[in-house]
Amino acid sequence: GQRLALDVAAGVTLDAVFLLPSEWSDETPGILIALDERGKAGALASAGVASARARGWAVLAPDLRGTGESAAGEFELATAAWLLDRDLLASRVDDVLALVQWLSERYSTGQQINARHIAVWGPEAFGLVALVAAALDERIAGAASGPFAESLEELLVESPAITPMAFPFAALETFDLADLARLGG
After folding, report:
1. Can you tell me whether residue 111 is helix, strand or coil?
2. CA-to-CA dists, residue 40 to 45, 68, 80, angstroms
3. Which of 39, 52, 81, 93 could make a disulfide contact with 86, Cβ separation 3.0–4.6 Å?
């Protein structure tokens, strides 16, 4: 394993752990970017990472903004982001896209791992981050989510029980339902 400090935006550095496969074969392994509310420690302890490691995949587990070593209360983070005219979900998606860029630049030759087989996984609300990132970047070959919202309506209420990160204020003033459906794929 390797501990990383990755610059993902001006003034934003994420801590991460990158694990290469424990065994090698003739086939270059894919990469799982594992997300978790508890950051890299939570991601590395997850069943999703255990499954990827059992299949011989490399794993990149980051502390996205406000998780892991930079953790703060989710409601406080979302409120601060809104007050700064930023979106916490969009910031975390940007973090994932920067990680994909880093992987693509570092492993473009496919000698150690296959940068064309990047998957993103996150449980609960972090599954939304994974799915939106995959909708926005064709280099992400797949995305998966753990248990999450059962309907779009659950995400469009002012006080979601799931996470404030999932609620973009006035989403339907910014997007039409067709736009949201296209993002969902």
Report:
1. coil
2. 9, 6, 23
3. 81
- Give the phi and the psi of residue 35 in degrees, each rounded to 5: -110, 150
Report pTM: 0.78
d(CA 25, CA 28): 7
Locate tokens 């255990």: which residue?
A: 50
CA-nearest of 9, 46, 49, 16 to 31 is: 49
Whole-angstrom CA distances from 92 to 114, 132, 185 are: 24, 10, 20
Q: How far apart are CA 134 and CA 144, in angstroms?
A: 9
Tens of pLDDT, residues 27-76: 778 899 999 989 999 999 999 999 999 999 999 999 998 787 766 666 56
